[in-house]
Amino acid sequence: MTTVQTTVPPPTAAVRPKVVARTGLYGVLALNVVVVTVFFIQAGFASNTLIVLGRLAGLYGALLMAFQLLLVARLPWFDRRIGMDRLTSWHRWVGFGLLFTLLGHAVFITFGYAQSSSMDPVNQLVDLGETVEGVFRAIVALGLILVIGAVSGRYARRRLAYETWHFIHLYTYLAVLLAFTHQVAAGTTFTSSSAATTYWYVLWSVALGAVLLGRLVLPLYRNLRHRLRVSAVVPESDDVVSVYITGRDLDRLPARAGQFFLWRFLTRDQWWQANPFSLSAAPDGRTLRLTAKTAGDGTAALRNLKVGTRVFAEGPYGAFTAMHRTRPEAVLIAGGVGVTPIRALLEELHGHAVVIYRVATDRDAVLYEELRELARAKGAELHLVSGPVSPDKLAPGELARLVPDINDRDVFLCGPPPMMNAVLGSLRELGVPKPQIHFERFSLAG
């Protein structure tokens, strides 16, 4: 059943939420770099330049490790403003920076002490591991970071199942623990003053506390409170199914149209799988709905879910919402099953909207009848664009023909990656301002 939201939209903020959150993260990191550098200088320099560089690299590596934890904590305030896809992407690049700083720490320290003791670097490293408290733990932590970095490269990531990649990635927490105990035992800057010691304890407590809150406490609390269950399973086509979820106090769940959850259906065969599915209808306080296309064993099994099946959902996640609007009118562009968050957004958006739905054939237009009914109720224009990939039916000229004033509208885009990349290119060629373009790549591992 299609419903139309009637609440009055909030006024557009003078400063975009994404800019506020991003500036806040940059500012926190920059401030901590300054603080770490000041403590390093106050602790005094070693006589060996390599040792000095090694210690500084180690301190920055510890700071990046704590920042990494903040990026993956899935804190709602940051996630709603930046989006899990961008936070995950930043996490990946910060991870490579962490890898190089820790490698630099190990190499500079080893060669620095080898230079002073006249030992070769290998024997020096062994000697440090045997005689200096905490160094062996640091070597193990570095080994774990190297393995995690290797499996996070594009070549390896594309060949690993998400569950395998995620299991290996969990060793990051062990590496964090080992690195912290190494810092406590051997870090000269850590123990140089009571202020430095307090700073590092607070930094690690905040970072680890953020992860526990966002990844464990909040999901457990929400699921215990809302007690989600499957209320209906509705086939939409031969390979698309909608699952309706009910629970307690869903009007208190802070979900918005365009967001997604990580869904676990607690059956014997599926409880261990977490799949990201967008809401395909705007939350109404009574029911949540997801719509998925068969793309593997996990999604194929959705069709066989029984009414009453318990559901564990993490979220809501994502910045693909009307919160980021900058213009009173919008263009919603969907490709294939990417129509699900677009359909939900249309239900919530106010102002005139143009909906463009790109599919290979008319039969592939999932939820099209709902979309048409909703567009009629909202006074929106709906264009079903079907046909082969070539020629590009969403090329700049075609988009300008369908939406002559596209440069004066917000553009919300969701679909398969090749289609999204092509449309983003068209939008750039048309000169649509970047702040008006909203999209999210739904990928757990980046």
Structural class: alpha/beta
User: What is Rg?
Assistant: 25 Å
Query: Strand order, biggest sheet?
Result: 9-8-7-10-11
Shape: elongated
Strand portion, in percent?
5-15%
Q: Strand tally, please?
A: 11
* Count of helical regions: 15
Distance between the termini: 34 Å
Q: Spell the H/E element sequence.
A: HHHHHHHHHHEEEEEHEEHEHEHEHE
How do you describe this structure in short?
By secondary structure, this protein is an alpha/beta fold. Helices cover 51% and strands 15% of the residues. A five-stranded parallel β-sheet has the order 9-8-7-10-11, sandwiched between helices. A three-stranded antiparallel β-sheet has the order 1-2-5, with no helix packed on it.
Topology of helices and strands:
Blueprint: H1 17-43, H2 49-71, H3 76-82, H4 84-117, H5 121-131, H6 135-151, H7 154-157, H8 162-169, H9 171-186, H10 194-226, E1 229-235, E2 240-246, E3 260-265, E4 275-278, E5 287-293, H11 297-300, E6 311-317, E7 330-335, H12 339-348, E8 353-359, H13 368-378, E9 381-386, H14 396-402, E10 410-414, H15 417-430, E11 437-439
Parallel strand pairs: 7-8, 7-10, 8-9, 10-11
Antiparallel strand pairs: 1-2, 2-5, 3-4, 3-6
